[in-house]
């Protein structure tokens, strides 16, 4: 067992006994805490976006839907959970993330950083042991091909 696994197990043990409901519930003599998949998914999405070199999350289709959502008045923009899927068990969680990286960034180093930040965030906030973080690099963002160019500088023709 690795050091981080041992630390996670010890941290989980001090947080209270896990319930057998398969939903990451913490049970103590004072009550139960249940952590939903959506919470873990949001934590993972925010943690992945915090890493320098991550341009966006999600595959081409989900990014296209996110771009449309951003343009709808009153919408909150792209979903925090775009490109992130999780599986939460009794005391463990597994995460799959699809990222778009910035050109010039070491993909190996970026994946290591994203993985480390997701594990730290989920384990720190929930007490769940993260057993797996799979990262798929879907695209590389080129600085001169900015898809998000602001066209509000004026009309093209007059």
Secondary structure: elements and pairs:
Layout: H1 3-15, E1 17-18, E2 26-28, E3 31-33, H2 37-49, E4 54-57, H3 60-71, E5 84-88, E6 92-102, H4 107-126, E7 129-141
Helix pairs in contact: 2-4
State the end-to-end distance. Answer: 68 Å
Rg (C-alpha, Å): 19 Å
What is the mean predicted local confidence, pLDDT?
Answer: 78
Number of strands: 7
Task: Summarize the helix and strand pattern as letters.
Answer: HEEEHEHEEHE
The backbone outline, from C-alpha atoms, is: globular
* % residues in beta strands: 25-35%
Structural class: alpha+beta
**Low-confidence segments:** 1-24
Residue share in helix = 25-40%
Total helices: the number is 4
Profile the largest sheet.
4 strands, mixed
Q: Would you mind describing this structure in some detail?
A:
α2 (37-49) packs across α4 (107-126). The protein has four helices and seven strands. The strands form two sheets. Strands 4, 5, 6 and 7 form a four-stranded mixed beta sheet that branches. Strands 1-2-3 form a three-stranded antiparallel beta sheet, covered by helices on one side. The chain is of the alpha+beta class and 158 residues long. The chain has helices at residues 3-15, 37-49, 60-71, 107-126; strands at residues 17-18, 26-28, 31-33, 54-57, 84-88, 92-102, 129-141. The longest helix is centred in the last third of the chain and has 20 residues, at 107-126. The chain is 37% helix and 26% strand.
